Amino acid sequence: MTCVENIMSREIMTVSPLDSVRKAADMMNDLKIGCFPVVDGGRLVGIITSRDVRYSHPNRLVIDAMSKDLVTVTPSCSIWEAAETMERHGIERLVVTENGNLLGIVTKLQVYHELGKHIDPLTGLNRAEYLYHTADKLIRNNTAVTIIFIDLDGFGEIDKEHGHIVGDEVLRRVGLVIKAHTEENLDYPCRYAGDEFAVVTVRPADTAKEYALQIVNAIANNNWHDRMKITASAGVINWRPLMNNDCDIRKLINTASLASTRAKKKGVPVVTVDCQDG
């Protein structure tokens, strides 16, 4: 999973709490840097930003102008968690620390630039790594989740008969169908790979099969190019807190994928399995 340590700036310039604001401002201008961690005796004690500098007299000390309530993350923090933290606190950068040691700084620009790489350009959906992040976060918070794995039926034949341009248009419109059936803070869709899609949802488990069926039916009933018949099969797996304390996210998603294959073989639109069924 893409973490902060993969994108953070490691070459860190620092200032002392007893330096003047003027010195910090001059260093920011010279180095084209928007902030400096403030370090005292090797210990991180604050951060001074260009905003702090603008609202402080240049003769004041850094200790009087710096922000002392630091928002920090560890190097293993995912880029999605970093973005959420920045938005929640309304800040433009995060200090990266581990065991009290200053390791780097990551900016909002760096985080969102990296996030952009994890969006599928054809469908506009997040890629598979986002699914792993979201499912893992929800499960760690003991939130009941359902994973719906959606696989188009016979998609290879569509490419062969109609060409890849038409095939890409089908995938794009499937993405739109899935988006149209997701609600904010309930459903988290992604294009998993190729003609495979997936949704992590926190809808009640007893409605999950019906929800998956709505998506599959919407795909089948779409007004497709040249009256093509596009269908999909879905596998559904529910996870509840205390069901499995050693939950393996990849195994969970793989089980949902196998359930979609089972649906194809049975000729039914949706197959649901329990987490304990494997």
Automatic annotation (TrEMBL):
<dbReference type="InterPro" id="IPR000644">
    <property type="entry name" value="CBS_dom"/>
</dbReference>
<dbReference type="InterPro" id="IPR050469">
    <property type="entry name" value="Diguanylate_Cyclase"/>
</dbReference>
<dbReference type="InterPro" id="IPR000160">
    <property type="entry name" value="GGDEF_dom"/>
</dbReference>
<feature type="domain" description="GGDEF">
    <location>
        <begin position="143"/>
        <end position="276"/>
    </location>
</feature>
<dbReference type="InterPro" id="IPR043128">
    <property type="entry name" value="Rev_trsase/Diguanyl_cyclase"/>
</dbReference>
<dbReference type="InterPro" id="IPR046342">
    <property type="entry name" value="CBS_dom_sf"/>
</dbReference>
<dbReference type="GO" id="GO:0052621">
    <property type="term" value="F:diguanylate cyclase activity"/>
</dbReference>
<dbReference type="GO" id="GO:1902201">
    <property type="term" value="P:negative regulation of bacterial-type flagellum-dependent cell motility"/>
</dbReference>
<protein>
    <submittedName>
        <fullName>CBS domain-containing protein</fullName>
    </submittedName>
</protein>
<dbReference type="InterPro" id="IPR029787">
    <property type="entry name" value="Nucleotide_cyclase"/>
</dbReference>
<dbReference type="Pfam" id="PF00990">
    <property type="entry name" value="GGDEF"/>
</dbReference>
<feature type="domain" description="CBS">
    <location>
        <begin position="8"/>
        <end position="63"/>
    </location>
</feature>
<keyword id="KW-0129">CBS domain</keyword>
<feature type="domain" description="CBS">
    <location>
        <begin position="66"/>
        <end position="121"/>
    </location>
</feature>
<dbReference type="GO" id="GO:0005886">
    <property type="term" value="C:plasma membrane"/>
</dbReference>
<dbReference type="GO" id="GO:0043709">
    <property type="term" value="P:cell adhesion involved in single-species biofilm formation"/>
</dbReference>
<dbReference type="Pfam" id="PF00571">
    <property type="entry name" value="CBS"/>
</dbReference>
